[in-house]
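[step 3/7] fold_predict: job queued, chain A
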Amino acid sequence: MHPALIYAPGHRLSLTELSAARLDGHVVEVGEAYMPADTVEGADARASSVAHLLSAGSALCGPSAAWIHGAGDRPPVRHHLRRCGAKGPRPRPGDRVIVHEPGFADADVLDLDGVPVGTREATAIELALAAHRDAESEHWLKGLLLVSPGLASRTAEVISARGRVPGKRHAMLLLGELAAQEVVTR
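[step 4/7] structure written:
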């Protein structure tokens, strides 16, 4: 999405002006920003709306990446970042940002109009392995699998091929249930 179509509060227009435009029906909220009401909210618009939270060399991951890929209507309360590659600067955590380790492999990062985001597959793997300790991850995983047919079984195959990984047993059970539900509902 062209940057001219994303209005972040305080840049070209104040939050007050954007709120008035939203009330008048000229713009709609998307993530941390606004966009014209007659444009389509896709993954590129969602990514562009939170691009200002990224630090150099980082990518959106986990619940944030799931939201960008269409897993829910509202973004997560705190956005999740991961370093791109094994080396480079570590993203800075903040009030609205959670930083995860280790970094992404290059193949696991998708560029959406200049905003690095974890791929659907990498995001599903991350969320499945975190679901045993975090209910939010399970929620976002279920949403991501709803909009990505076949992703549950592909994710289960990748995780099962890995060695010992924290959360693997719970992830395999969860993905098995979700893959079975996908078959029943299709």
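[step 5/7] annotate
Strands lie at 27-30, 33-36, 58-60, 79-84, 97-104, 109-112, 115-118.
Residues 179 and 185 are 10 Å apart (CA to CA).
exit 0
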